[in-house]
Amino acid sequence: MILLRYKKAHEKIAMGLLSYMPGEKSVKKLQETVQQYESDEQSQLFLLKDHDDYIGVIGIELEDDAYTVKHLSVNPSYRGEGIGTAMVSKLHELFPDLECKSTEQTERFMKKCMEKEGAD
């Protein structure tokens, strides 16, 4: 599995994956979310690719000494397989010197990921 930085060519895939998140259902809201990642240098969106399939999406906002996970979604067909945890781990590899933070929407999942990493 590889984590790829979002490109405009992936817009429909990203919107489809983001639509699995609560509060991200309407096409207008999805377009606004993707537009935010396209236009703001501090906002970065990554897609997780497994062979030929895009199975997850994770979006962050970069700060000087940290990044905040704002969006995280896994294709329902792949849930329960550690995909979300894998994406969080890959972010840690990309930004090893930055603290990882969460939003109210991603906090519960992020805590679960940290517990899993601690158990390994």
Largest sheet: 5 strands, mixed
Shape category: globular
Give the integer mean of the pLDDT values.
90
Number of strands: 5
Order of helices and strands: EHHEEEHEH
Total helices: the number is: 4
The chain-level structural class is alpha+beta
How would you sum up this structure, described in words?
The chain has 120 residues and is of the alpha+beta class. The protein contains four helices and five strands; from the N terminus they run E-H-H-E-E-E-H-E-H. Helix 3 links the parallel strand 4 and strand 5. Helix 3 packs across helix 4. The chain starts with a strand and ends with a helix. The mean pLDDT is 90.
Helices and strands in order:
Layout: E1 2-5, H1 11-18, H2 27-39, E2 43-50, E3 53-62, E4 66-74, H3 83-94, E5 99-102, H4 107-119
Parallel strand pairs: 4-5
Antiparallel strand pairs: 1-2, 2-3, 3-4
Helix pairs in contact: 1-2, 3-4
Give a quick rundown of the structure.
The chain has 120 residues and is an alpha+beta fold. The chain has helices at residues 11-18, 27-39, 83-94, 107-119, and strands at 2-5, 43-50, 53-62, 66-74, 99-102. It is globular, with a radius of gyration of 13 Å.
